[in-house]
Amino acid sequence: MSELHTPALRGAFVYGDRVKLTGPKGRLNTFTLEVDGEFHSHRGILRHDQIVGLPDASVVTNSSGEEYLALRPLLTDFVMSMPRGAAIVYPKDAAQIVSLADIFPGARVVEAGVGSGALSLHLLRAIGAEGELHSFERREEFAEIAQANAVAFSGSMPKNWTVRVGDLQESLPSALEDGSVDRVVLDMLAPWECVDVTANALAPGGVVICYVATVTQLSRTVEEFRRSGLFTHPQASETMVRGWHVEGLAVRPDHRMVAHTGFLVTARKLAPGTVLPSLKRRASKSDFSDEDMASWLPDMGAGEESETWTDEAVGVRSKSDKVLRKKVRSAQKIADQRMQDEPGA
Ligand SMILES: C[S@@+](CC[C@H](N)C(=O)[O-])C[C@H]1O[C@@H](n2cnc3c(N)ncnc32)[C@H](O)[C@@H]1O
């Protein structure tokens, strides 16, 4: 793919920029500004050249006097509306991941899986041009959707982003040198299968963060990272964001909220040979034995791929191959449209 106009993050609108219009009834429309382009609604026409040259967040009027607010879409606007193959990491969790995993400008980050690429876009922004993002995805269609989404968002495939198709466990060891990675971000069904490769890839003190959807995955992930003895004690959390309605004296929480998305587990890689001082468990009624653990997580440490853990078993709705191919075409169409919309293309 050739390079496109990279949408500006500030300044007056120029051709090739994306613009998000909010119409009279709050209806949203997002499109790319084209030479001779027009936005048609059932009540009138707005020429793209009316928007070009205006500062971000300006009001424009169409041929029938209707007013529209023109804004540059934010990363979160793009992510929430882009084509999806797999379920995405929501902005509230992406923000926490960037913060808890301490993703810094210039960091060398490994990510698996890529899914629709939502988290990848947040990670790319956090590492900046000096950083490197190495993403691994076992399903080719998902990798294609994610890359098309990145092209649609940033105008070209980011130069510091490498996407490899394959299982992290198999692909990572030959892709990157041991101890050369600052951060590992795992959003996948069974992160506990990646404990060893993660430990090998990370530099001492490096952070691993896992995003899992269910309590059973959370428990298995924490126990396997802890059992490996290669990491600090894992920390687990979830993030709830409740919107508020604030209008005059009617100030209260919103009636609806996204109550659950997933859990985050973080740990840091220990230096070679370091043995973590064990935290003595207090004997109490709530104490548990190894047999109790085995009954809770029966295949833990079995050393072979478990049949127990499937997308369906943890409640992930999987898409048929036909639906996925449709998503790939839809993501690529948007990326291609961006290329055609390029001024002078
Ligand atoms: C929920 S999706 C990731 C969503 C992504 N973080 C986003 O925000 O768009 C999980 C992905 O992990 C991939 N996956 C699962 N296990 C994997 C593994 N061992 N190696 C690489 N990819 C894996 C799946 O194919 C799926 O695309």
What is the topology?
Layout: E1 18-22, E2 28-32, E3 38-41, E4 44-47, E5 58-61, E6 67-71, H1 75-81, H2 91-100, E7 108-112, H3 118-127, E8 132-137, H4 140-154, E9 161-165, H5 168-175, E10 181-187, H6 195-201, E11 202-212, H7 215-228, E12 235-238, E13 244-247, E14 250-253, E15 263-268, H8 290-296, H9 321-341
Parallel strand pairs: 7-8, 7-10, 8-9, 10-11
Antiparallel strand pairs: 1-2, 1-6, 3-4, 5-6, 11-15, 12-15, 13-14
The protein binds S-adenosylmethionine.
Description of the molecule:
The structure is a single chain. The chain has 345 residues and is α/β, with parallel strands linked by helices. The protein folds into two domains: 18-73, Roll (Vcp-like ATPase, Chain A, domain 2), CATH 3.10.330.20; 78-272, Vaccinia Virus protein VP39 (Rossmann fold, 3-Layer(aba) Sandwich), CATH 3.40.50.150. The chain has helices at residues 75-81, 91-100, 118-127, 140-154, 168-175, 195-201, 215-228, 290-296, 321-341; strands spanning 18-22, 28-32, 38-41, 44-47, 58-61, 67-71, 108-112, 132-137, 161-165, 181-187, 202-212, 235-238, 244-247, 250-253, 263-268. It has a seven-stranded mixed β-sheet, with helices on both faces. The protein has a four-stranded antiparallel β-sheet with strand order 2-1-6-5, with no helix packed on it. β1 and β2 (28-32) form a beta hairpin. α4 runs parallel beside α9 (321-341). The two termini are 13 Å apart. It binds S-adenosylmethionine. This is tRNA (Adenine-N1)-methyltransferase. Keywords: Methyltransferase, S-adenosyl-L-methionine, Transferase, tRNA processing. Residues 290-345 are annotated as: Disordered.
